[in-house]
Specification:
homodimer; alpha+beta; Rossmann fold; Jelly Rolls; eleven-stranded mixed β-sheet; nine-stranded antiparallel β-sheet; globular; protease (chains A, B); serine protease (chains A, B); PepX_N_dom (chains A, B)
């Protein structure tokens, strides 16, 4: 076990004392004369809120070993407090088992091995208070800090009734769970957008579900954590599945053109908007509640800690008006309408009929956005509007340009695992008004037209960047970003590929906002229930700062770039940036099956065919893992002549591969069209992290006392594998100049192409070899026409440029 | 989708009316003059408890389609109520989507296809009320009845404050969720057992965690649903893993003996018991609470419905005293101590120190037990004591004799998937006092001795039934059973094998108690979150009857034996018994590779070797699935000479295989020891149900308003497989007479053996072939000495006897 904590705030002794008093851990006056062991014991005694009598408490405390032969009460009689017994007891409070998890006679060594903060000396009150303060902030076996574990036992119950002037209650810069989740107010409002996307002559009303502390009814103004999730009100999975496009189609030759970006640039529509609804009255009381929202456990954690949680699914979803149009500017406007209401700059009504206005009177006007994938995407979209009230976004696995989600360099490129999906499919899936039979009836014909328009606009024929995609490119508007940004992405996310976060991260660099980046080793996942990382606490620190305006140094404390190591499990490392500092550029040249540091004297041309037998094709189009493992294998297989493989020498030292590799190739197709795909591969037999995290303990994470739960998980090493795919790239040979312009392509003629692979942050261990596999049809991402095309590379004009740093 | 509901109570119109009034669905006086469509609309209006104003309500109702072109409000203006619109609306309320899940113009056909109850005519008030009453009891897409789905939206909130005289609130014979789960009282008591298993000179105190409705504080007496779970306070997984026995050992020849059962019969110890603790005071107020118990979602469902939930882990677990001894009579006594306290016949204290007595003053004295595996086992153990207060047990996947869990016919036979596990390992794993470091210190030496005693007693050397196992055989005491019994078991449970439930079921047959049996197609799983079966409602009906003494005909309504079909998904069928009625006995004879209905004229002897190459052995001992798939394959493989395979002709008709197949073999070993294993196999390429249920929707089952949740799941057909293992059997050739007696065995001499295979209830489809595979070493269950032994069968003296019935 190894723990990584980045949310810890270093505070002086006086602050420690007052915070411990604030949360009720210190009720006595602490003076230098206070008995050390009395104080320690009083701390321990307070760590069992489930005990409601002295006898019960004593029984529980006496179960704690202090030394290999004494329980804590026996030890305490000796009137000393040494670090060893302190951490023996501490480890037990943190949920570790004597003997199994740690040696009772070596607790300090265990603290060190687990990468937990500890103090070697406890010679005076100040040191003891400091050690206890830190222990409360230390993560335990169940992946929560001790104070959160105590909260799950009801520690904070007596503080639920604190005067609102004392809320939020802070400890170590973070808001504590002193908000009764049993009493959360759940209400629905309908926000009037400045849109009429369903063309019914009325502005689209947008349903928002709110969970907020009841303290708000007593005068506490709380900030809002808002998740814009198009999936939230249900999805049309079956209808979406039926719409999936057939990818078993040949790549079509495109007519060359001379398009410039200006030719395809998106211009905002200036449709006339129906008037606002008249306000016929106002109220503070909503008229609709709900049983269970579709929640995100990070939000659940925050709901117990004084943040209102707001979910809205947006235009075209169940309960709202309008239609979906997949990442369009209208969806962005629909997303920020909720923020505008929360910040007091837009109207909402209690229902869709009566025009009774209801304000977010309980909100302090500060809003953060959370969520992953489409949800994080809409957070990104919202940030690029600079909307007032939005103080930060935490965008996880977010799309920054929809072209980078569904296309690449003039090719239709599916999100990994979903060949045939496209913007129209997603629009249909999220159009959950369809779930309300009678509501659907009203809007069905118009949505049909809308869908046809999306299908035309996305243009699967050319795969080119066009006005449709330009309208869905948030990167163009990054200059508008006024809020602080915390980005999270998996370097193995082949659904929302890493380029999305990379481009956003790079575009933000110039702006005067705080930006943080976390890169994990997962695919398209949430990371708030990892045992090894204090992600929830980091978010708490961040949001307590951004939304409650608490000066907790969140900007300084959280690392600029935090990266999970892919070799050592449970290891996270802070870096100043993704791929700038201490990074060196390295050119690799191509030889027969080799990547070399120096340009070889002689190189040849090498060819491969993209065509499979019917049997091969049938086999590999079904099983992507099998296809990937076969085409990447460095031994002979039935796919080894369908690709070219180039490998470096075994590495002399561990290296970090950072950012995007850049590839130049000189290539000829024997047809008048063609595409290339490449994979960057780490070759070397080794145990590697699993594809998905392993669940360590079901429901063991408590988001608050008698509140919701989450499964604790972690990436673990699996059995040895011979290689691992690190990055990918794809290009249409007719998009050599730009993704929006079609170049000519003559059969059997050589052309220079160059493009970036997907960025990464990858630890290449010593002795491994870096490989590049060049092929064409990508079973899981490109069209799969199984055409008879041969490709030839002129190796003398090929070059791979990497950015690396020392490990 | 197909639904199966067995919990429905048929009640007359007057009862329907009064129950609908009771739950607040009917507040108007219904007369024959009441307008049909007004009444229907009032029902619909009441189905949206989340709406808190008329406008909101109207908006929600207007989203419901009544006909392909009209919403329900438009339709209702026509003043008629036809069955089609009624069920179109009904299906939407049940969560089905117009178009995707059902055709709006054919709702009755959908009700029929889904196997949901519907009424063809709604011509008068009585028919409409009846139809609505039934609709509230109808399961929807999320696997809950409509009334439970409404409860999840807060429908019952206004009834939380009902006078206690009106609680429990009944509808259709079941207790409704009118108990505020936010206010549940959570308390711990320590029950004094009549045991001193840790020999510390004091009676063992047993910790019990109780969750009970706060209404109890206002005078409501509630029954208790009690789960005895040794896992509940944590487990020592690592220590247990370390103790796993090495199974890669040869089978040892045993010295023949002439033991009789009387020689090994267990006699109860008569140890002297320390005196009871003196009572120094009494209280109604507990002194300890808890944050989160380790819960079972069925109990969560019941907790919202007026049943107190009690968890106790028993002797030797964290918080309790004593030591574990794996299924011993002391564990049974420890289990029933809790019931004795609940029924007022035993003392409990508020803590372990002060001797302040606390009674279960809130309990009506009626107790049920629930839980699976070891938990169900202890319920079975408790039932066989006839303890007062225990009204019923719901034993799921329960052991009825520990010999049938860890042994078979003179062999050490591991629970599937856990080779090397044994009673001592389980005792160690459950000895969770070890988790409290200082408490462990006190009891460690004694528990070490205890463990050594278990290791000796279980006797892995002979695998014979002995006094140790006889003490752990609950079947001997079945005559004591006084409570009603509901058994649940998976016919594919190779952990707790089906013989355990079969023997208990058969032993109960003679007793004047009600017994019910449910056989599902799962392995070792819970079945309370299946979409296709109303298991939770069945349990509600059962417990409302057994514990609240409500005359709801539960005994008559629930089927005697309910079996999930293994061919058709979502299909459950009621039978009068497991293997008696309409069952015919069928003898099959052995020929070369054949099982024949008539004894063949000539048969030969056939042999196989049990010995594998080192490489084979290394491969197959690691991967059980691979081993099973290879040894069962009916084509040549590297294991086909390690077994004999006999198959019937393809079946002319579908058949049901019921109960235990009986096998006679004439066999010789070429050594002076030996063992045979057999598998009964369904051969025939077909789509079959998956090994585990598929999760259909996460957290979609609400156990009550703002209460806990469960994942909805169901067995689904997977891709085609060539065969499926149906049953297994194992025997030591030296246990031909009895499992407690060792017979002689001479090398190369033929002996007659006969034994029962594990019982089953299996649907063999037409065209399939039944096969029997005879082999010796079972990679996942027996010892694996990889000895050079050859076995020879004399086919003329072999016979397989089956019990079958028509499908």
């Amino acid at each position: 076990m190894k723990f990584n904590q980045y949310s810890r705030m270093i505070v002086p002794y006086r602050t420690q004392v007052s915070e411990l008093q604030g949360i009720g851990f210190l009720d006595q006056l602490v003076t230098p004369q206070t008995s050390l062991n009395d104080l320690w014991l009083s701390f321990i005694y307070k760590s069992f809120p489930q005990a409601q009598s002295q006898s019960t408490l004593k029984e529980m405390v006496s179960n704690l070993l202090a030394t290999p032969t004494q329980n804590v009460l026996e030890y305490i009689d000796q009137k000393t407090v040494d670090a060893a017994p302190f951490y023996t007891v501490g480890l037990q409070l943190l949920g570790f088992t004597c003997g199994d998890d740690f040696k009772v006679d070596q607790p300090l060594q265990t603290m060190k091995d687990f990468n937990l903060l500890y103090h070697e000396k406890l010679n005076n009150i100040e040191e003891l208070v400091g050690a206890w303060y830190d222990l409360l902030n230390t993560r335990g076996k169940n992946g929560q800090i001790l104070l959160d574990a105590l909260a799950a036992q009801g520690y904070f119950l007596p503080l639920y009734d604190l005067p609102i002037a004392q809320k939020p209650l802070l400890f170590n810069g973070k808001s504590q769970p002193v908000f009764a989740t049993d009493d959360l107010i759940r209400e629905v409002v309908y926000i009037e957008s400045s849109l009429d996307t369903d063309h019914d002559g009325k502005r689209d009303l947008l349903k928002a579900e709110i969970l907020r502390p009841s303290d708000a009814n007593n005068g506490l103004k709380v900030p809002a954590v808002y998740t814009a999730s198009p999936y939230n009100q249900g999805t049309n999975d079956e209808a979406g599945d039926k719409m999936m496009h057939n990818v078993d189609q040949p790549l079509t030759r495109k007519e060359p053109n001379e398009l410039q970006y200006e030719d395809i640039k998106y211009q905002q529509d200036t449709e006339e908007l129906p008037p606002e609804r008249p306000v016929k009255g106002t109220t503070q009381q909503a008229e609709e509640t709900f049983g269970r929202e579709f929640s995100y456990t990070l939000n659940d954690y925050l709901a117990a800690r004084g943040f209102a949680i707001v979910y809205a699914a947006g235009i075209g979803t169940r309960g709202s008006q309008g239609v979906r149009n997949c990442g369009s500017p209208a969806e962005t406007a629909s997303t920020i309408a909720i923020i505008e209401w929360l910040a007091g700059n837009r109207r909402a009504f209690t229902n869709k009929t009566d025009n009774i206005e209801i304000k977010a009177w309980w909100c302090n006007g500060s809003v953060a956005m959370t969520g992953r994938s489409y949800l994080g995407t809409l957070a990104t979209a919202a940030a690029t509007t600079g909307v007032t009230g939005l103080k930060t976004i935490i965008s996880e696995a977010a799309i920054s340009s929809w072209y980078d989600y569904y296309r690449d360099n003039g090719l239709v490129i599916a999100p990994g695992g979903f060949p045939g999906e496209d913007a129209d499919v997603l629009a249909e899936e999220c159009f959950s008004r369809q779930l309300d039979g009678a509501d659907h009836l009203k809007v069905k014909p118009f949505f049909g037209q809308q869908l046809a328009q999306i299908t035309r606009g996305q243009d699967r024929t050319t795969g080119d960047y066009n006005t449709f995609w330009d309208a869905r490119n948030y990167l163009k508007d990054v200059a508008n970003v006024k809020c602080d940004v915390l980005m999270v992405h998996g370097v193995n996310d082949w659904n929302v590929k890493p380029r999305n976060v990379y481009n956003f991260y790079r575009a933000l660099a110039k702006l005067p906002v705080t930006k943080k980046l976390i890169l994990h080793q997962g695919q398209h996942i949430y990371i708030n229930a990892f045992r090894s990382l204090d992600y929830s606490e980091m978010i708490n620190l961040w949001l307590t700062n951004k939304l409650y305006d608490v000066a907790n140094n969140a900007d300084q404390i959280l690392p600029a770039v935090l990266v999970q190591d892919n070799v050592q499990p449970e290891t996270w490392t802070a870096y100043p940036d993704w791929d700038k500092t201490e990074v060196k550029q390295q050119n690799l040249y191509f030889d027969q099956e080799k990547l070399t540091e120096n340009q070889p004297a002689k190189t040849a041309t090498v060819s491969f065919s993209d065509h499979l037998s019917d049997e091969q094709f049938a086999k590999y189009r079904q099983n992507f893992e099998n296809w990937r493992n076969t085409i990447l294998a460095d031994h002979a297989s039935d796919l080894s002549d369908k690709r070219l493989l180039f490998k470096t020498q075994p590495l002399a030292n561990d290296e970090l591969l950072r950012g995007a590799a850049h590839l130049k190739l000189k290539v000829a197709s024997n047809q008048d069209h063609g595409m290339l795909s490449v994979m960057l591969v780490d070759y070397g037999t080794a145990k590697r992290l699993g594809v998905s995290p392993t669940v360590l303990a079901r429901k063991s994470i408590s988001e608050g006392y008698h509140w919701r739960e989450d499964d604790l998980n972690e990436f673990q090493l699996t059995k040895k594998t011979p290689f691992k795919m690190v990055s990918k790239g794809h290009i249409n040979l007719q998009n050599r100049t730009a993704n929006y312009k079609t170049d000519d392509l003559q059969a059997d003629e050589f052309y220079d192409i160059e493009f970036d692979l997907q960025p990464t942050f990858y630890h290449l261990p010593q002795g491994h070899q870096l490989g590049l596999v060049v092929y064409s049809t990508d079973m899981e991402m490109t069209v799969r026409g199984n055409e008879k095309i041969n490709y030839t590379l002129d190796l003398s004009e090929c070059q791979l440029t990497l950015k690396t740093s020392k490990y």
